[in-house]
């Protein structure tokens, strides 16, 4: 301690002050392993990882902006792509496909392909 | 070397007994490794709760990172000043919570956990028990002190800062430090005598 303070300390130093200091020093030396490990991990994560912000509102705000951007992109991009590209024939299913009298050739082709019969049948694909 | 740095170095050498403690830290990791345990115990004495103490130390470290570009000689007074403010704020919030809990009919014992020290296998169990009881009593007495007296006692008497460093950490004059300390010692006198 500062030498200029010793007179003050001697005047106010009660009998138990040295005991209080001894207790404190002893407690510093006798920290439990779990606490010591947490302190060490805390320090290393702080110094090695990205800087944590002391302004917690920044994280939700950034997350909200990111979410809004993603939503906008997912909403906008599929609409743009479907308007530009022609609809594939296999997707559009209308009643004309099942006009059996008018498309015998189609049904004949369908009849030639393998049929999935599931567990009951022996037909394996 | 600036006058402020030279003064800080002189103060450091007067406070710390060993050359290792008096030497400037090589980096922030070394500095924090040197203070984290003492900071934790001071926080635990103030707050009476292990998790609160760990949170306070962590927040103090986070805030100190903002000053990592400052000269290493400034880290120590900065850190203790930051930690002091953390502990004061948390202690005040805890006091409000305790009053609310008491109003709602829940006792203080629901939250407080005793301050624990790792047993010393080389120490007599009865002495160890006495030390643990004394440690808890010290914590209880410290937490009953008025804020400024508590800060002054912890920083000056337990952490071992000089009067000038304590004043810098507390944001007051050297004379105020001595006044607060004198009153703290009077308040603790009865308790300290019991610990002899």
Low-confidence sequence ranges of chain B: 4-21
Unreliable sequence segments of chain A = 1-12, 120-125
The value of Rg of chain A in angstroms is: 39 Å
Main beta sheet of chain B, described? Answer: none
Structural class of chain B: mainly alpha
Mean pLDDT reading of chain A: 66
Biggest sheet overview of chain A:
none
- What's the oligomerization state? heterodimer
Termini separation of chain A: 88 Å
Helix content of chain B: over 70%
Provide mean pLDDT of chain B, rounded. 81
Helical stretch count of chain B? 9
Count of helix runs of chain A: 5
Q: Give the overall shape of chain A.
A: elongated
Number of strands of chain A: 0
> What class do helices, strands and sheet pairing of chain A give?
mainly alpha
| Radius of gyration computed on alpha carbons of chain B | 18 Å
Describe the structure.
The complex is a heterodimer of chains A (125) and B (196). Chain A has 125 residues and is mainly alpha-helical. Chain A has five helices and no strands. Chain A has helices spanning 6-12, 17-29, 33-48, 58-84, 104-112. Chain A is elongated and about 110 Å long. Mean pLDDT of chain A is 66; it is low at 1-12 and 120-125. By secondary structure, chain B is mainly alpha-helical. Helix content of chain B is 73%, strand content 0%. Chain B is globular, with a radius of gyration of 18 Å. The N and C termini of chain B lie far apart (45 Å). Residues 4-21 of chain B have low confidence and may be disordered. Classes of the chains: A mainly alpha (125), B mainly alpha (196). The interface between A and B is large, with 37 and 52 residues.
């Amino acid at each position: 301690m500062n030498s200029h303070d010793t007179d003050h300390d001697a005047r106010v130093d009660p009998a138990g002050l040295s005991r209080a200091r001894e207790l404190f020093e002893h407690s510093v030396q006798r920290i439990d392993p779990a606490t010591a490990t947490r302190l060490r991990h805390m320090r290393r994560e702080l110094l090695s990882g990205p800087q944590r912000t002391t302004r917690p509102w920044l994280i939700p705000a950034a997350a909200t902006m990111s979410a809004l951007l993603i939503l906008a992109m997912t909403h906008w991009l599929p609409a743009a792509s479907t308007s530009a590209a022609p609809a594939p024939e296999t997707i559009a299913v209308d009643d004309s496909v099942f006009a059996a009298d008018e498309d015998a050739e189609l049904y004949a082709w369908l009849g030639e392909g393998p049929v999935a019969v599931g567990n009951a049948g022996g037909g394996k694909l | 070397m600036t006058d402020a740095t030279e003064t800080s170095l002189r103060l450091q050498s007067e406070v710390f007994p060993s050359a290792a403690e008096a030497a400037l830290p090589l980096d922030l990791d070394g500095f924090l490794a040197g203070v984290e345990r003492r900071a934790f115990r001071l926080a635990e004495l103030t707050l009476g709760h292990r998790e609160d103490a760990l949170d306070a130390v962590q927040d103090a470290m986070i805030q100190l990172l903002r000053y990592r570009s400052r000269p290493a000689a400034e880290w120590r007074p900065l850190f203790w000043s930051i930690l002091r403010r953390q502990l004061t704020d948390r202690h005040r919030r805890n006091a409000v919570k305790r009053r609310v809990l008491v109003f709602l009919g829940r006792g203080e014992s629901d939250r407080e956990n005793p301050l624990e020290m790792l047993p010393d296998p080389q120490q007599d169990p009865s002495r160890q028990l006495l030390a643990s009881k004394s440690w808890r009593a010290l914590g209880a007495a410290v937490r009953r002190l008025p804020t400024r007296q508590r800060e002054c006692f912890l920083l000056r008497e337990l952490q071992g800062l000089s009067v000038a460093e304590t004043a810098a950490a507390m944001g007051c004059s050297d004379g105020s430090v001595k006044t607060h300390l004198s009153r703290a010692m009077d308040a603790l006198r009865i308790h300290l005598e019991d610990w002899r």
